[in-house]
Amino acid sequence: MMNRLQQSSEYIRCLEFFSGIGGLHYAFILSEIKGEVVASFDINIIANSVYKHNFDKEPITKGIDSLTIEDIEKYKANCWLMSPPCQPYTRGGKSLDDKDQRSKGFLHLIDILSKLSDPPNYIFLENVLNFEKSRCREKLVTQLCLTNYEITECLLTPLQFGIPNDRLRYYLMARKRSDSYELENIISPHEYLKNAVIHQTWPLPPPLSNQQQELKHSEPFNIPTLSTYLEELTEGEIKRYLVPEKYILKSFNFRFDIVLPSDRKCSCFTKSYGSHHIYSSGSLIQTKNLEFTNYNFEEPSSLLELELRFFTPKEIARLHTFPLKSQTLHENPIYHEKTIPRSYDNFLKRNYNGPYLEFPENISIKQKYRVLGNSLNCFVVSELLSCILFL
Ligand SMILES: C[S@@+](CC[C@H](N)C(=O)[O-])C[C@H]1O[C@@H](n2cnc3c(N)ncnc32)[C@H](O)[C@@H]1O
């Protein structure tokens, strides 16, 4: 089914704020919406070098908090894509919310939005769980209501899209009201905040998602096993990714997440993945004694013989559904067993002509983990763009 935008002639010109390695840019390309990303903004030099390597266009390194109205208006963009820093809303980041220096760029964009002569028709935002309870979100939706946007908010994980990775994230999609019927239905920020629903099921209830009819009769997603996402590593390569013994031995009583290749779920990868923070930064794969799953975290030395390893950056990129050149999943027979409308397996079978995610040679493994941990699930975002934002 084509969405409204695919049928119309509206051409989308996106600004991508907090662009990192371009997860939103990939998602936009994957959504097959007619348009382009006209400029991206980020201050991280490493992430920007990866972005430039793949999109052949350097993100603007000026801090978003210092952008002027003219800096933004000159692009004549009708869509904003953004994934602001998440630390202000996490316990690890002290949950300082709008008082955190790292939310300055985002708050500045909210302020600018109220001053633009021609605000964007579409806004997409990705953030972490807890953003939905934040003062920053309250400020954003307040501004959006005052500027006549229709808002959809949800909390979703890639598991709901048939991908064996749990990464629960908050998404907001806002569309500027235009026709007279829509303008009659404007609600005040107070009323919106009182009644707002944060959707947690996929597809979203009708009439929010245009895929509702297609998905209604489909069977539940058959989530593939992690093994289908793993690289075929040589013994030498496996050694490179083994979790150092000292990390395991010092993790007394920390129930870090161990997964088997036959599992159909792994936990969220954060930017600390690959470091000594093995608790809650992402799953570790058991490579030996696969029949043994009765882990004793009170005796970490008993876990050493399982030869736990980190997922490789390529495996994480696959789980985050970045388009990769070596997309071996394409050929995997498991994906041809069933055709599930709009599930990830369909997406993989499409002919993809856009840029792939590759890392420049000088980027270390640690840097790859950091930028991937900061990034997002491209398929989930592409679905939200094509099924909700541009409905
Ligand atoms: C959550 S990450 C976004 C990652 C991105 N969506 C991706 O796919 O890689 C947030 C990004 O915001 C950038 N950032 C933080 N504060 C900024 C500011 N004031 N101006 C520009 N970029 C900023 C960080 O460097 C980081 O890359």
Automatic annotation (TrEMBL):
Family per record: Belongs to the class I-like SAM-binding methyltransferase superfamily. C5-methyltransferase family.
One Pfam family matching this protein: DNA_methylase
Keywords from the UniProt entry: Methyltransferase, S-adenosyl-L-methionine, Transferase
Species this protein is from: Glomus cerebriforme
Catalytic site: C86
Domain of life from the UniProt record: Eukaryota
InterPro entries (alphabetical): C5-MTase, C5_MeTfrase, SAM-dependent_MTases_sf
GO CC annotation: nucleus
GO biological process: methylation
UniProt-recorded name of the protein: S-adenosyl-L-methionine-dependent methyltransferase
Gene Ontology molecular function, alphabetical: methyltransferase activity
